[in-house]
Each structure stands twice: as C-alpha cells, then as structure tokens.
Amino acid sequence: MNARELRLLFLVAGAIVFVDTMFYAAVAPLLPSLSRELHLSKASAGLLTAGYAIGTLIGAIPGGLLAERAGPRITLYTGLGLMGAASPAFGLLDNIVLLDAARILQGFGGACTWAGALAWLIAEVPAQRRGSAIGGALAAGIGGALFGPVIGTLAHALGRGPVFSAVVLLAGVLIVAVASLPAPSPLPAHGPTRLLDQLRRPVIALSMWLVALPAIASGTMNVLGPLRLGELGAGAAGIGATFLIAAAIEAAMSPAVGHVSDRRGRILPLRTGLAISAVALLLFTVPQTAVLLALVIVLETVGLGTFWAPAMAMLSDAADSYGVSQGYAMALINLAWATGQVTGAAGGGTLAKATGDAVPFAIVAALCVATLGLMLVRPVRIAQPR
Question: What is the CB neighbour count within 10 angstroms for residue 384?
C-alpha cells in the first residue's frame, strides 16, 4: 500500500472499532435502570455486561480463522453484519435472556471486526511501527468507549429502541467504506495445529496474560463501578460522565503508550500499568462519595490504558518471530481479552454478591502485584519480528 492508501485503511479501521466499542460501552449508564426494571442481581448484571465478551470468546478462533482463510475484508463484512443485526435487538427487547443473547451475538461480531481490522493493519505497517499502529487503533476503539456512555445516557432518555436501531445504518456505511479499500496483502496460511503449538511459547503465554489481566480488571470495574456509583447517589448522567472522562484520558494516552513501546520496549509501560492498577484497585471501596469513587475509576483506567498496545504488539511480534499468521495472533488477543472480560464481569459480580465489592478488587490487585513481581525478578525475552 502507498501512504495514501495506508491512511485510508487507518481511517476505516479506526471508524469500525470506534462504532463497535461505542455500542459495547453504552450499557454502563443503563445498568442501574435495567437492574431495577428487570430485577437483576449483581450476578445477573455481571452476566449482561459480560455477554459481549462471551460472544467474543466464542468468536475469537473462528474470527482468526476467517481472517486467515477468507481475508480481512470478508471478516469485516461478517463482523459488521452481525453487529448491525444484534444491536437493534438489544434496543428493542425487554427479556433478560434475549438481551443476553443479543449481547453475545454483538460480541461474536466484534471478534470478527477486531480480527479483520487489526490483522489488516499489522500486515501493512512496518514492524518497528507496530506499537504505534496498534495504539492508534486502540485510541479509536477507546474513543468509541468514550462516546458509549453518552449513547447509553441518550438511550436512557429517549428509549433503547431508537438509539440502538441506528447501528443498522452505521454498519451499512462502514461496509461500503470497507469495499472501497485496496486489496489487503495476503496473510500466510497455517493450520490451527500451528496456533495451538505456539501457546506453549512463554512470551506468547505472557502476552496473552497481559491482555487478559487488564480485561479482568476492567470487566470487574464495568459491572461494580456503575452499581456502586448508583448506590452513592450518582445518576445515569453522572455515571456516563465518569466513564466518559476516563475513556477520554485513555484514548489520549494510547497512541503515546504505543510509541513508547516501539522506542523503549514493551516491558516499561507494562510494569508502570501494573503498579498503578494495583493501587487503584485496592482503593475502590474506600471512597464514600460518588465524586471520590469517580476519581478512583479514572485512575484505574489510566493504569489499564498502559497495558493494551504494548501487550498486543508483543504478541504480534512473537507471532511474526514464530511464523504464526497475524489473523491467528488477533484470535489469541480476542481470546485473552474475552476470557478476562467474562471472568471480571461475571465472576466479579458473582463474587461481590457473595462477599462484597472489596474481595474481587483485592484479588485482581494481588494478580497485578504478582505479575509485576514476576516481571521484575525474571527478565522477559521478547521475540523479535522477522
């Protein structure tokens, strides 16, 4: 691709992940009102929040296979089609089982859109700019998460049906934009056995864990954060504003974190994120006002924001080094993220119901401290892309 075509690819890929995460994140301001209307426990609210991640978990390997075998373009068509079908259903249904099903279908589509978009980007950019490219795509995705609470607040005011039905139009526009892109570079074809063999590589296992760990933390925060803010007196607008500010900061810092990981190595920002996240997680139950809790949520988001680009770039580098297709690398990233989100959202909500909010946050903080200790004691050998 020439420079102009690469800029167009960045623009379209960014728009796709923006829209996908926007409607994923829109559920946060709606969670307290949905919990009241549908009489949801914290565990049920956690399952609803985790529905998208469950769908991504189911779709991770199929999405990676599709990206490798059919190419990124077909993968994006598939993901956008599923997103366009699932989001209106989430807006129109009032049965919790059907709402969960719609979120799962949306997550399956998200696995395809992220696999297609990132595999296409990584195949076209030089390896030494990989962190910056991933950071830029993540900034667009986080920007979607930034506007997601606004969409959720709007749906709270106008009704879920009209707001979520607008996704059909957006999906159609994005499909046309994907069709206008030049042909992607072919991805190397490998069988699924090659993918499974590489899971035994320490650097790949560590990279997946460093994607899963912040997903566990954010999944827990996305369920218990809005509920606790509601208990402390925050309304839908206040909850939406909290996550809006947090996402804005994360979006602003993501490209810079990716750039630092290209220049200074993947490990430095990861260690920083582990330290910040551990402190913020332990502080979650301390505030007794909504304003102070909102500040803790923002601090935690800053910590988590230093994980994504370097961890994903580290896994992508390892995939190149060991001869694994980037389509499969994206499948592993989706698999790690989704596993973490399901664990954090569903597991965190269930554990909080049984023991209180402090226990799940203390457990995740302990995982951050243990991972940081391991990375300080044992140097990590980073696989270099070929």
Answer: 10
At 114 the three-state DSSP class reads helix
Instruction: Give the mean pLDDT of 42-66.
Output: 82
Taking residues 272-286, what's their average pLDDT? Answer: 92
Query: Other C-beta atoms within 10 Å of 249: how many?
Result: 16
Tell the residue number behind the tokens 């690469």, with chain if given. 6
pTM (predicted TM-score): 0.76
Q: Residue 55 in contact with residue 342, Cβ under 8 Å?
A: no
Task: Render pLDDT for 309-349 as a digit per residue (tens, 0 to 9).
Answer: 888 888 888 877 777 777 778 888 888 888 888 788 778 87
Domains of the chain, earliest start first = 3-377 (1.20.1250.20)
Residue 229, Cβ neighbours under 10 Å: how many?
A: 26
DSSP-derived letter for residue 352 is H
Q: Side chain identity at 143, as an amino acid letter?
A: G
Q: Where does the chain have alpha helices with state H?
A: 3-25, 27-38, 42-69, 72-92, 96-124, 130-158, 160-165, 167-179, 192-198, 202-231, 236-264, 267-282, 290-305, 308-321, 326-342, 348-355, 358-377
Residue 201, classified by CB atoms within 10 Å of its CB into exposed (0-12), middle (13-18) or buried (19+), is middle
